[in-house]
Structures are given as C-alpha cells and as structure tokens.
Amino acid sequence: MGRGIVLRILAVCVISALLWPLSTGVTAQTRSGGIIKVATDAEPNTFDWMTSTATATRLVAWHVFEGLFAIDQQYQVRPLLAEGFAASPDGLRYTIRLRKGVKFHDGQPMTAGDVIASLERWGKLSSGGRETFKHVKDIRAPDQSTVEINLSSPFAPLITSLGDPKQSAIVMPKAIAERAGAQPVRELVGTGPYIFKQWTPGQIIVLARNPAYASRTENWGGLTGRKVAYADEVHFYPVTDPQVRLSGVSTGQYDFALALPADLYPKVKADRRLTADIVHVFSWPGIVFNKARGPFTDVRLRQAVQYAIKPADLMAAAVGPKEFWALDPGLFFPEQRGVYSTAGAEIYNHQNLDKARALMREAGYTGQKIVLMYTKDYTWMNNAGQVLAPELQAVGFNVDSQVYDWPTLLSRRTKPQFFDIFITGFSPSIDPTGIIFFGPKWPGWYQSAALDKVLEEWSRTPVTAQAERHKIMDEIQTVFYNEVPVAKLGNQYGLEVYNDRLQGYTSYFDVRFWNTWVTR
Amino acid sequence: MARYAAGRVLALVPVLLIVGVTVFLLIHLIPGDPASVILGPEATDTQVAQLRAALGLDRPLYVQFVVWFGRVVHGDLGDSIFLRQTVTRAIWDHLSPTASLTALAEALALAVAIPSGILAAWKRDTRYDQIFMMLVLLGVSIPSFWTGLNLIALFAVALRLFPVAGYVSPAHGVGPWLGSLVLPAAALAFTQAGLIARMARDSTIDVLAEDYIRTARSKGVREPRVLARHAFRNALIPTVTVVGTSLANLLSGAVIVETVFVLPGIGNLAVQSISRRDYPVIEGVVLLVALVYVIVNLAVDLLYAALDPRITY
After folding, report:
1. Architecture of domain B87-307 in CATH?
2. Minimal CA separation from A309 to chain B, in Å
3. For residue range A172-223, what is the model confidence (pLDDT) as tens digits?
4. Which of A184, A199, A247 sits opposite B38 (nearest CB)?
C-alpha cells in the first residue's frame, strides 16, 4: 500500500511537471480578450471623479483616471503616477518625481504642467482638495517630470490626501482641466488601463483596453501597483432591480453584480457557480445631528441619543443577516491598520435609558419636536428609521419622522431649519482629515475647538511616527464619542456576486476590473 | 369630419401650453436639484452652490421659465443636464423601445383578450366563463413588475429561453430584438388583456341580448356567423374606448416594466430624470406624454365614426 501511494504521488508530479509549462504559457494568452459584463445598481451622474463623491462615479472612473498616489490592498497610500517623493525636514516642501513614459489616452505624454493644472482644479472643487490647499503656498514645476509643492504650514496628510479615492486628485490634460472649470469634466481623458469608449444613458457604459498603458510593476493591489487590462472591454449595465442583477449573473448574461441586498445571500450560496464577495470595508450607517440649530446644538442631547439607541437592533433591522454587519466603535475599519482605533468602546453600544433620560433633564429638554429625516429609496435607511423612531420615543423624545425621496432629502439636509436628525451611510475614509462630517460645511455643521486641536496635531505629526499617530487617532475618536457629531450604528458589509466565468478577482472596498479576466 | 379633426388638433395648442407651464412650476417647486445629485451624498454646501451657479440654476425661477419657454415655442426643448444631448434627441433615442414594447404588448393583449372575451360571453355562466373571470381578475390585480420578475425566474433563469433583461435594437436582428421584448411585453399584456377581455365579454353579452341577434338566429344564421358578423362589430365600440385609454395607460405601466427589464424607453428616461432632477428632460417627456394622450383620444373618437355609421361629426 505504501508503494501504491508513492507511485501515485510520483505520477501526479510527473504529469504536473509535463503540464506546467503548457498551462502557464497558455493562461497568459487565454486570459486576454473577451468582455467583462457588470450589472450596476446605479448609473453615474458624472464621470468626473474629482468633483463627485458618488460610488457609482468612482468605480467606473478609476479604470480611466489615475492620480499621483493611490491606496493599495491594505488601504495604505503608495505612488501611482508619481515615481516617489521627498519631503524637506521642516515638512514645508514636497518634491514629487513623476513616472516617465506615462501617456494620456489621447497619446500625449503626461507632464508636470498637466499635474499642476489638475491639482489646482482639485484644490478648488473637492473637499479634501480645499482642506489641503489651505496649507499650500504654491505648486511649481522645476522640470517636466518634477512637481514641487510648497506649504505655508506643515500638513503631514498631504500625500494621503493626494491618494484619497474620494473626490480624487486625478491627473488629466491641462487643457481639459482648464476648459472644464467648475463644471463636471466631459472629455474623459486619463492615463488608466481602460479608455472611456461609449456611454448610452440607461443602457451601457463601455470601457476599452488601453494598449499603451504604462503599468507599474509592484504587486501592491488595491488601486495601484501592477495593473493589467486583460479584457478587451468592460461593460457596465445599469440594472435597477437587485433580483434581476442576480438572475443575470446566474444565467451568464452578466459576470458581476454589484450591491445586492443581504437577504439575497441564501440564494447566492445555493448556486454553485456563483461566488459571494462579502465586502468588509464598505460603509457605516450613522445618525447625523443638526448642530447649527435646534435642540441638538446641546451636546448633552446628542449624548442622550447615543445612550438611547441599541446599535444591534438598528443594524439587524437595517441590514439583516448577521454575516453582513458588525458592532464596532471605529471611525475607520479594522482592515485599515494605520488609522483604526477602538477608543470610545466604553460609550459605543452601551444603551442606558436612565442615563439618557438624566442627560435630557439636565439639558432642559421639554418635549420639543425632533424632526427625523430618512429616505425609502434605500431600504436599509428606511428600516433603520423605523426602529430608530421608537427607540428615541422610549426615552421621551417627541419624534416627527419625515420620509422623503433621496434627492429631496439631499436638498433638505442642507438647510438647518428643516431637520434635527437624518440617517445616512459613510463610505470608508482613509485619513481623519478626510472624514466628511468633521467639516464645518457639511450638513450637520460640526464645529469643535477640541477636534480642531487634535486634527491640527495630526496634521503636524509625520506619517512615519506610527506610535504617536495611533495615540492622536485615539484622541480624535475620544472627541468623536464625547461630542457626538454623529452617532455611529455599526459597520455594514456589502454583497457583490460573480459567476465562474470571471477569474482573478480580489475583494476590495469597491470593484475594479484590471488583473481580472473572463474565460470563454 | 376633416373640419372636426382639424379643430381638435388646434385645441392641442392650449392643452400643451397649460401642461408645459404646470410641469415647469411643479418640478421646480419640489425640493432637490441636479447639482447635489451630480456631486453625490458627501458633497459640501459650497460645492453644490458652485455647481448650481455653473448650471445656471441660481437664477430666479421666472428668468429660467422665460428662457425655457422662449426655446420651447421655437421647438427647442433644451439640453439635458446629464445626458450630453438635446432633450429632443434623448426622447427620440428612447422612443423606439417604448413604441416596440407598447405595440407588442397591445398586440398580445388583443390577440388573447378579444377572442376569449367573446367566447366567455357566448358561454356565459359556464365553467369556462368562471375560469375566464378568475384569470381576468388576476390579470387586473397583479402588478406588472411582479409578473415580470416571475416571468424572468421561469423563462430566463430556469428555462433560459430569453435574456434576463436589456434591450437589443432591431438593427442587431429581428430575432434578438423580439427576444428582448417578449417577457416585458407579456408582463404588460397580462394586465392589459384582463381589462380588455372583461370589456369585450360584457359588451358582447349586452349585444347578444339585442333584438337583431335574436332575429338573425331565428333566420337560421349559424352561431359563428352571428358572433363574427353581428355581435362582434357592435360590441367593439366600448372595447375600442378601453383599448384607447389603455394604450395611453401602457405608457405609465411601461415605466415600471422598463425599469425591471432595463429597457431604455421613455418610462425609464422619465424615472431616471426625475430622480436626478434633470428638469429639461422631465418637461420634455411630460409634454410628449400629454401629446400622446390627446392624439390617442382623438384617434378613438374618429374610430367611433368608422365603426358605427350612426356616429357623425
């Protein structure tokens, strides 16, 4: 029997050895070609990733556009169009070397002039850009492949900010950046592995392989490193109904379906040809308070809400199956090791109705109406709203639930006189300076001396001082839990599904289709 | 009759005018604006204000109205904020799927509803009539999106006979084009057929009780001929009314079915434009739908005269 096993192992080894050169030689070729068909839940309203914060925009745009820096598989910022950078010892001058041989889709080489024009547009149009440009004195081009950013005050998150995937600092030709101005850019010329080819609204977005793509060689994953466009084309189809998206992937009409509700998960598991990709770095739902006007200008009432709610109930109602949510106090996700903190864990998820009522009495709350806004356009928000209202009523808040369609909610939440609370989800940020509700201009209008102080400290601390940064991150999160600009509910996971035709896909916070191929 | 038709066509002008003004005011009065939709949920107020100004949406409403109305009078519906094309072009591009879908659904509905309705009237109060009435009730009651999802589950996923969703233009072949329309048309036709069949049955029952039917029968005319020659044509008038109004209704039913089946038709365009607050497109689509309603009504009125010589204008 022993000899039998040895013989069998030998046979397997010999056959594998014979087949190995064949298989590796063949796959590189067979991977190339074909069309990756993606069913999306929403159609982008613009492809200008520099202006829009929408996920639908970003996940198409990042096949076409690239920035100087981008995040890798571990959500760390690394160079992309930049070769590298050097910061002066006082932290006031950043010299960024550009990669040579990078060409735009129109065939023109990328130069420092293009980069400067793009960065200046970004500094005007995006939140992160405006925040960054508060510290920027000037940007110069010592030569065609070097960009020098001079700061008026130290801003350690500069490189992180340049690599932020939200309203990203993408590089486009100078003429196009200047022509577009404040309007969303309509000439979609980037440096990415795919070229924008066609958009038929309501039907299809077509990206075609960029044959002249200048790829990096590092195996960093995420949005940077080596990128190979295997497929001839990537097609995005807007398919509103999630059930139809799933049906399409199971029949092979599509290869990939985005944003499925968690209750379809059992159906996905039952189909052997489908792979469920549960996305952990996805979104966290929160309750946003109006801090400019009304009862919640008093921090004690915001704390009262924090003690009145039971995150587990809200998450179970909003999201559903336990595989798709987690209770976590972090402003960031556990996978984001550089910035994740658990500070505030002693406050988060500690429902205490007596404490809530005591805080309300202390704040002198006497039953003023609380306007709670949410939308039915997103099922999870509607579900969360329906559980939140009775939880607030249980401690004595006089809740007036107002349910709107999404564009109406987006409009009403910009006016302080219209609401006290609204429910929304926050997609992953990569740096505390990029957290949207920390900005005084975002709906909710949060202004805090304590936060400014710790953020300022964060901005001064070099990225390399890991231990110190973790300490400051804990402080930032402590301020968040003491002042409660937003009450966090939990972490929500996403569900994406693909069939066995699609190969090489790696899970990430949002989908991308380079280094991925289809079998034919 | 020509005079009557011309008068009715002229009456279109004030109707469209009133619809245009009302729609403009209504959609600008509902909250939400394209700038915040373009910029996404995490945009700041400043950014939104910046883009509103760039799109010309910060001007007073009456100025926007005058600009828009001035263009409409010249036949120019303006440019879509999102689609990078004129509204006229966008509507034209979305017209063919809706027209194909509506025509196919109506044809399917008529092919099923008229014969089965007449048969039910003829076999009144029998087992056939009871089953027929049950099906009709189901057809009218079940929402078309639900029928649609079930048709997908059965014919697209389980049997793989048709694509799950999407539209194939007739330029890519008549077979694939029809294939992409069969399931959505069937979903629409089910509701539609219920309505028409019920009407066909009831009006046939009324007609069968008339004296001239008894006379025909007593003359020894055979039953098929009684039904086809004497009953059918007279029972048709109320049915034509239902078909007419339902044809216009199909446009609104198409909104839902087009969304489920991802057909790039007028309904889909309307839904998308409303959720994006693409004002010029919404205005254009509503004007078009109003126009269709008026024209269908006119056509129905003129058909009466063709069907019944006693009616003259």
Report:
1. Orthogonal Bundle (1.10)
2. 24
3. 999 999 999 888 898 999 999 999 999 988 889 999 999 999 999 999 999 9
4. A184
